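quick one, two chains, predict together pls
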Amino acid sequence: MLNKSLGQKLAAVGLSGLLAIFAAACGAGKKAPDGGQAIKIGVNAEMTGPVSSFGMSSANAMKLAAKQINSSGGALGRQLQLVFADNKSEPAEAAAAATKLIAQDKVAAVLGPLISSTTLACTKIAQDRKIPLLTPSATNPAVTVQNGKTLEYVFRSCFIDDFMGGLMADFAQNSLKAKTAALFIDSASDLSKSTAGIFEAFFVKNGGKIVSKEAYLAKDTDFKATLTKIKAVNPDVIFVPGNYQEAGMIVKQARELDLLQPIVGVDAWDSPKLFDIGGAAALNNTYYPGHYSPDDTRPEVQKFVKEYKEEYGVVPDTQAVLGYDSVFVLVDAIKRAGSDDPEKIRGALAATKGLRTVSGVITLDDSHNPIKGAVINENKEGKVTFRERVDPNP
Amino acid sequence: MDSSSFLSQFIQQMINGISLGSIYALIALGYTMVYGILKLINFAHGDIYMLGAYAGFFAASVLRLSFFPSLLFAMLAAALAGMAIERLAYRPLRRAPRITALITAIGVSFFLDYTLILFVSPQPRTFPAIFESEIYRFYGIIINSQQILIFAVSLLLMAFLTYVVQCTRIGKAMRAVSYDTDTARLMGINVDKVISWTFALGSALAAAAGVLVGIYYNSIDPLMGMMPGIKAFVAAVLGGIGIIPGAMAGGLILGIVEAMASGFLSSTFRDAVAFSILILILLFKPSGLLGKNTREKV
C-alpha cells in the first residue's frame, strides 16, 4: 500500500544485513524450542508510526484469534504464543524486528509486516533464514515475486490489487448480467492498467466483449468528450479502475450525459469524498470491491464481528479481518505440516487450498498470492452498502 | 435517442468543446492582455485562476454567498492579488531583461501554488453547489445548465472587456501603452497605473474561469491551474498573442479540437493534438491566426 523511496529500501536492506550478522552471533547460544512447548509465532507489526492504526487493529485481531485457537485446544496439542515486535512503520525497523523475532525469539514463522514498504524490507531476511513470512495485508506484487521468481518463504493472505479486476469482471457478468463492457483507465497508473488488463482477460474468457477502451490522466477534470464517445457504443457496464477523485467526476459527468448503466470500480474508490465529488444521485448503480464488509451475512463474518465487538467494543475494520485471517491461514498450515518446523510449515503454506476464513475462501496460487473472493459494495442514496460476495473459482 | 449517429455525436462534442474552450478563452485573455502591454508571458496567470477558484470557494462555503456575489467576490480578490503581484514581483524588474521577468513569473507561479498548499492542504476540495445543474435534451443532444452558464458568463465578460478596451479612457490608455510605452508616458499617461489595471482585469477574468470550473467540475485543488494555464497560453498563441479576439477564438478552437480529438481519435491523443497545434502555428504563422504584422496590440 505504501511505498518508500529506493534509498530507504537500500538502507533497510543494508541495515538488516548488519543486524542479521549481529543477531546471529548473539542468538547462537540459545536452545531451539522443544516439542512440548508453545508454538512461537512472531508478529512484526506497525504498532507505532504513521500507520499504527493498522498495527493496532491487526494486533488486536491476532490476539483474539490466538485466544480462540488456544481455548479450543491450540494446534498439534500445543498452545500458540504470539511474540510481538514493533517496527515503527519503518522499513529499517521492520527488518530489525524480523531479525530479532527469528534469531532471538526463535519463532517458527512470522506474521507481518502489514504494509508493502516494510514487508519488502523483510523478504530477504525470511529467504536467507528460511523462516516463512506471511503478510496479512501488503499488496505490492513484488512482495512475493521478485525478478520473475516466487520467493519460497514469503506468502500473503490478502489478494493483490489488480486481482480486483477479475473480481469485478465476474460481478459484472454474473450479477449485473453485462455482455459488453467499456474500460476507462488512468493511463498514468500501472496499477490501473494491470487491473483493467485482468478485468478484460476474465470478461472475455467468460464470453463477454470489451467494446471500448479509453484512457485519462490523473488530475484530468473534463471527461465528457470521452464519455460521449463511450456512449456511442452503449456498453452494458463501464469499468473505472481509478482513484475516487477522478472516478467521482467521471460518474458525475457520465450521468449528466445520460450514461445510466452500472459503473464499477476498485477499492481506491473507497472515500467519503466520493459522494461529495460525484453526488449521491449520480453514484447510484455504481459498485466497488472490498476485502470485507461488516454487513456481510455469511456466518463466519457475523460470528467474527460479534466476538470482536465483545472483546474490543468496536466493529472490526478491514485490517482487523485481514490480521485475524492470517493467523488461521498459518495455523492451518502448521496443522497440515504436523510440526512447527519452519521448512514443513513453508511447504504446507504453499499448498493452502480452500481454507474458509472471514474474508473468503483462500487458495494460494503459484505466486503465493491468494485467489479469494471479495465483497461488492454498492453506493446507494449517498451510502455505501453491502451488495453481495463474489467468490471466483480458482 | 440516436446518440450513435455521427452528426449528433459531433454536435455533442461541439458542446463539450465549447464549454471547455470558454474556460480556456477566459484565462487566455489575461495572458494576452499582459503580453500585449508588457511583452511578458505571465506564467503565474494559471495560478491566479486557481486563487480565484479558492476565493469563490471561500465566498460560497464560508460567507455563504450565492452564485453572482461569489463570482464578484472571487473576481475582486483575484484582481487585487494580480495587482499586488505586479507591484511586488514585476514592477521592480520593469527595466530588467525580459528573461528575468519570465523566470520571476515561473517563481511566482510556484510560490502561489505551494503557499496555498501550506494553508489549505493539497487535498482537493468539493465546491459547494451554488448553481444547480439541470439537464436539457434536444433530439439526443444533452446540454447542461452549467455549460450554458459557462458560455454565457464568458461571452458577457468578453463583451465587457471589449467595451472597456475600446470605449473607455483606461482602455484607450491601455491601447496607447501597448502601442508605444515611451510615447504614451510622454503624453501624460500614468503607465504604472495602466499596467496595474491590466493585471486587475486579466486576473478578474481568470478568477471567473476558476469559479465556473469549480461549479462545473465540483472539485478544486491547489495545482489545478498548471495544465489549464499552459493550455490557455497555447490558446493565446494560437489566436495571436496580444490580440483580444485572438485569445477568444484560440480558446474556443483549442477546446473544440480537444473534444474532437478525444471523441473521434483517442483520449490519450488529446494533449498531443493541442500541443501539435501550438508547434504548427509557431512554424507556419508565428503571429497566430489573427496576428498581423501591424503593431496595434492590446
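The first helix of chain B runs from residue 6 to 38.
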